[in-house]
Design goal:
The protein is of the alpha/beta class. The protein is built from 6 helices and 7 strands, in the order E-H-H-E-E-H-E-H-E-E-H-H-E.
Length: 207
């Protein structure tokens, strides 16, 4: 049963502590915004989704030269330096959750810089679904049977996300029968293509 629509406060966490921030991907993701890197291009997309705040989690040694300037005075972007980002993506996630929690959002959208082709319209679909459907703990996209980032998580799951490690992964929450979620079928496979980059930053498994 659908609930009466109301606007909810949805925060965003952009996990940008990976080395893929400056990696080269297809020109399409860069041309759509005019930004000089895939990391900047995706950040622009997220900033067009009404996320409040939008926390960008970066490494301590990130010069931040890839960051585009804010587009308006109401920009809600916040930079969070994660001193433990090198230990794995789950540590970056905890830093992001700690940063958004004081704002008491109803939900948070978690996006990964290694998937720079995600569009604002897709993130808005996640948010709209959460606002429309009763009692959801999460909303995720799926492609060829696999759940992919970004994922929207309700505040009810913030505690569980804080306890994740790189071995368990977000998939452990999505597949648990304890939680009520919805998956949206996404046909645009290129949107979920990860930027290729040598080396590893540790994996917080999405699938």
């Amino acid at each position: 049963m659908k609930k009466e629509w109301r606007t909810m406060k949805v925060a965003g966490i952009y996990l940008a502590a990976s080395r893929s921030i400056g990696a080269n991907v297809s020109a399409g993701s860069l041309n759509r915004t005019g930004d000089s890197s895939p990391g900047a291009a995706m950040l622009r997309e997220l900033e067009n989704c009404g996320l409040e705040p939008l926390v960008v989690v970066v490494r301590a040694n990130d010069p931040l030269s890839w960051l585009p300037p804010p587009e308006n005075l109401e920009n809600t972007r916040r930079i969070e330096t994660c001193l433990t980002a090198h230990l794995g993506l789950s540590f970056s996630l905890r830093c992001g959750l700690n940063a958004v929690s004081p704002f008491q959002p109803d939900a948070v959208v978690i996006a990964d810089a290694d998937q720079p082709l995600i569009e604002a319209s897709y993130v808005r679909r996640l948010i709209h679904t959460f606002e429309q459907e009763q009692g959801l703990d999460y909303v995720a996209g799926t492609h060829e049977g696999l759940q992919m980032a970004p994922v929207l998580f309700a505040r009810s799951l913030f505690g569980g996300l804080q306890e994740l490690d790189d071995g368990d992964g977000i998939a452990a929450i999505i597949r648990s029968p304890e939680y009520k979620g919805m998956t949206l079928q996404e046909e645009a496979s290129q949107m979920f293509t990860e930027a290729e980059l040598p080396g590893s930053i540790g994996e917080l498994r999405w699938k």
